[in-house]
Amino acid sequence: MTKKILVLNGNPKSNSFGQHLADIYSCEAREYFEVRRFNLSEMPFNASLQYGYNTPQILEPILVEFQKAVLWAEHIVIISPIWWGGLPAKLKGLFDRAFLPDFSFKYEKDNPVPVQLLTGKTSRLILTMDMPAQYMEEQAAPVITQLDTYTLQFCGIQKAQINLFGSLVLATPDDKQKWEGTMKSLGRKGL
């Protein structure tokens, strides 16, 4: 059976280095695995969970499609820039809107510990940033905590494997070629 991989380019810009990395990964992975791809820049939805969980908010068709892909996937690859030490707002909004109770987790009776509904899945976070390399881990830590620990793992997805690429603004052609090679290798292996 072929591995099922969801690739999410989480950059809200339509033309970005993240898009390029997602293209490379997807192209390589499709040679060996089943791949479904989403580009945040092409996903029309209201990123605001404006009523919290108090009032249901109708999901736009793209969010329904994204939820189906999450359930289908065995491995989820998220490529995102780090902006202001955090996730882009629209990417955060995607998880706010799509990873809802009774989809990704649920509470039972008076137990404050949620039942995880997305178990049996692995993930990889590929994070890019403009900060110099010596600040990468410090800048990435809050994003990894938010996205991996308190979103993906909270819902039952195994602890993510992490790749940090940066500084993009200071990157040489050799740096970018190395990152592209990493993406090709990850795609070929379905990691």
From TrEMBL:
Residues of the Flavodoxin-like fold domain: 3-176
Oxidoreductase is among the record's keywords: yes
Record's keyword annotation contains Transcription regulation: no
Protein name listed in UniProt: NAD(P)H-dependent oxidoreductase
Lineage start: Bacteria, Pseudomonadati, Pseudomonadota, Gammaproteobacteria, Alteromonadales
Pfam families reported in the protein's UniProt record: Flavodoxin_2 (PF02525)
Entry EC no(s): 1.-.-.-
Superkingdom of origin: Bacteria
Keyword terms, alphabetized: Oxidoreductase
GO molecular function: oxidoreductase activity
Coiled-coil portions: none
Protein family according to the UniProt entry: Belongs to the NAD(P)H dehydrogenase (quinone) family.
